[in-house]
Structure formats: C-alpha cells, structure tokens
Amino acid sequence: MNGTETRRVIALGFFDGVHLGHGALLRRVGEKAAELGAVPAAVTFDTHPENLILKTPAVPLLSSPLDRAELMRRYYGIRDVIVAHFDERMMHQPWREFVTDYLVKEHGAVHLVAGHDFHFGYKGEGNPERLQTLCQELGIGCDIIPKVCRDDITVSSTYIRTLVAQGEMERANEFLGHPHTLTDTVAHGKKLGSTLGFPTVNLRFQPGVLVPAYGVYATKVWFENGDSRLAVTNVGVRPTVDDGDRVTVEGFILDFNGNLYGQSVRMEFYKRLRGERKFDSLEELKQEVMRNAEQTRAYFDGR
Fold first, then answer.
1. Where in the chain is the domain with CATH 3.40.50.620?
2. Neighbouring residues of 244: CB distance < 8 A, sequence distance ≥ 6
3. Cβ contacts of residue 257 below 8 Å, gap of 6+?
4. CATH 2.40.30.30 location in the chain
5. Are 135 and 142 in contact (CB under 8 A)?
6. Partners of 187 in the beta sheet?
7. Which class is 179-301 in CATH?
8. pTM for the full model?
9. Quick check: 123 and 21 in contact, CB under 8 A?
10. According to DSSP H, which parts of the chain are helical?
11. In angstroms, what CA-CA distances link 84 with 31, 271, 281?
C-alpha cells in the first residue's frame, strides 16, 4: 500500500525523549485519528536539524530513533513513525513543498498536529501560522498545541537533557512522563557479573545519545518475552575493573538466572543511587553492589 492510499493524522516534530510536551501532540493525533478513521502517525528526523543547520557539535540526544519510535507506540498508540532523513536536500526544501509533497502526497496526511514553536522548511520559514493557513487551503485539518508546563517550567528536551546529564533521573522522568529508556542488544562484557555472583547485561548507548551522569542507578530491565527484573546498573568507565575510558552500561540483574547474550533488552532508569567510585578490591565492590541491590528493592517496593 503506498502512502497516498493510507490516510494519516500526523504529528510533526523531533520528539527527542518523547516527553510530556510531545505527549500532548501525540494524544491529539490519537483523538483525531479515531474521529477520522485514519492511522495515527508521527514524522521525526534521523538527525537533529540543528546539527546540520548550525554546523555545531552534535546535540546529544535523549533517545535513539529506535527508542523514540517505540516510546511513541508504547505510550501514545502511534502506529506509523515516519523517520525522515534530514539532509541538505530536506534542509533546503521550501516549507510549502514539505507539506504538500512530503506530508500530503507521499504520506496521505488528512490532519496535521504541531507544537507552538514548530519551524520547518528552508531557513525555518514554515511556522505554526503558515501551517494552519496552508492546511485550510488544502482542505485538511490542523491543530497547534500550546506549550506544556510543569512546576512553572516549560517541558523541553533541552531541560530534560540537563537533568539526565546531572543524574537527576527522578525529576527527568517526571518531565518525560515515563522512565528514561535505553534499548540495545546484550553484548559480551568482561564476565564481571559471574565473578560477583550476579547475572549481568552489558549495553551501550548509541553514538550521539546522551550518557547519564556516571554512577549506579536503580533500573528495571525488560526482556524480549515481556518479563522484567530489577537491576543495579553501573554507568561509566568501571574504575575498579577497567583501566580504559570506554563508557559501559552494566546491569546486575536481581533474582534472575539465564543467558541474555544477543537478546534485545530495554532498560528503564529510575534513580541514581551513588556516583561512580573505585573500590580497593572486588570483594569490597561486591559488598557495595549487594547494598545497592537492597536500596533498589526498597525503592521499587515504595513505588
């Protein structure tokens, strides 16, 4: 089935982290799609437009395109996530053409939903007012969603990135509206977990994705079969066992036996328990991991 045969209600944005502000757009898409008998969809970009436009060092992202799409599906019922390749051609595309050719002709848009600050097209000349006017001309619907605030702060990816970079995960999750997430295929690590008596998962942040403040976190790990377990997760360079500076994400999984190598797992971050530090021995590290395990159980028991 090609795009024009599928009628879509489409949310427009970058959607990094899929936070509460994005949620307001995506909920509206769901309502309109149900009303119009159309498919709830969203258009996002594979790279942050600022990286290409400003030629600046990459904006570190809260979520990979894979995680972004999955969060939209899981929490907001978005069925089609269209990942547009943001390159020089798209950067120079006139804003009207982006709507008429890309969204309407190619992807069957019958209704568009955008945020109050959404700019698009060449030099960002497309804005919410122009979008509404053009949609009227084309005979399709358009909603512009006002900003969403929490604690008198505008919910934004920029603010949440600051919180994650500082390890303030609980507050970050309040603004996200869900736990901060990392999905990856389990890789072979240094087998440290078996030495300490815990099964472990070794994950990596994709290049360009923001690494939370180094330290130990109370996390939950979801497996491919839909089961989940609590985990004590170290983010950092593992100073006790490694001399290198490669960032690792190592989750010690509680109450679990089994081999997860090669499986795709989703890790949810809830609370930073402590900063990363070097221990004098593996035995001392093991005692600390046991203590962190009890803190993690207590944290989830209290939720």
1. 3-150
2. 237
3. 199
4. 179-301
5. yes
6. 202
7. mainly beta
8. 0.90
9. no
10. 20-36, 49-53, 65-76, 88-91, 95-97, 128-138, 157-165, 169-176, 192-196, 282-301
11. 24, 33, 49
Segment 96-102 long-range contacts (CB within 8 Å, at least 24 positions apart): 96/121, 96/126, 96/134, 97/121, 98/126, 99/126, 99/131, 99/134, 99/135, 99/138, 100/134, 100/138
Looking at residue 52, its pLDDT comes to 58
CATH node for 3-150: 3.40.50.620
Q: What is the DSSP letter of 102?
A: I
| Secondary structure (3-state) at 82 | strand
**pLDDT tens per residue, range 185-225:** 998 765 555 667 778 899 998 888 999 999 999 999 999 99
Handedness of CA 94, 47, 119, 137 (dihedral sign): positive
In this structure, of 41-50, 144-153, 176-185, 263-272, the range with the lowest mean pLDDT score is: 41-50
The DSSP symbol for 106 reads I
Which residue in 240, 237, 250, 235 sits closest to 203, CA to CA?
250
